[in-house]
Predict the 3D structure of the following.
Amino acid sequence: MPRKILLLITDLEIGGTPTVVRELATRLNGSADGSANGVEVEVEVACLAKWGPVADQLRDAGVAVTALGARGAVDFLKVRGHLIHLCRERNVDTVFSFLVHANAVAASAVRSLPGVRFIQSIQTAQPNPRWHWWLQSLIDRRAERIVVPSPSAAQAARDWSGVPAEKLTVIPNAVDVAQFENLNPPVDDKPLAVGFIGRLDPIKRLPDLIHAVGLLRGRVRLHVFGEGRQRPELEALVRRLQLGEIVTLHGAVPRPQDALRKIGLLVLPSKAEGFGLVLIEAMAAGIPVLGTNVPGIRDVVRDGETGLLVPCEPRALAAGLERLVENTDLRHRLAAAGRADVRRRFTWSAVLPQYRELLKLA
């Protein structure tokens, strides 16, 4: 009989963790990429929320998807019941959940699913909201293993949720390098096209980046790709600083390549990240990266070797931007080293075997 694995995530909107789940599901599913030593694998994906764009991508790739349709915490018991029914109906033998809300629902559901393996994933190193870490501390004991994408995320899980070190497994995020080749990004344009790709959330510190761009007096143009609750605040800031001619908020893009082919430098100014998938996507495309020297980002970027790291404040961001704008050779050197580092550390050929071992498929 084939192995039946369910990947459960909070939502399937455009974002880093949904992308990881999509890639993992499509690569494990079936026999072409998902079998090892004669083990046949059937992977399904479920999300707590309504149907999202990544659900369409999974369906188009031949992966079964279920949207449980939760509208909030009030639907906890209903969604838990739906999950239990789904696992029984599909004869699921392993539930692998991603993010704290999905972890909580799955931890409750597996109590009624004897014999089903349960693995959790924590994808953040962000300190807040602290109640997320409190909740995680209540549910981690039900999981056999807890997967994190970086040493920083592992440290956060130990410090803020008390997860035992021996229960944690670090598996980095990965990219298909072939999907990011031949984008021809404008790395030598003047003014330099600087980009941010991600959700518009206070943890990303986008006001700092907008202020930094303003300090450079038109030597760069900032392109922001993403949506989120902070958008009205960012639009107001751009108007107040009179930066409308050099800062553009494009909204979300269905594929990161659509944004990466328009920029010559990627900036991630976050206060903290679990990993920063967009960093390795940009590096795979041959785009230099500038990030803040914070947990998660410094696990991916080697300062002065594969990218630049700066303190988390506007003037430091501006100084880093100015250095890269003025030094074409540095941009090209960092881009080449970044692409080579992704090929060494962050490809699916390097990462997928770690998941197969975790899921006992190898």
In short: Residues 154 and 172 are 11 Å apart (CA to CA). The mean pLDDT is 94. The chain has two domains: 3-174+348-358, 177-345.
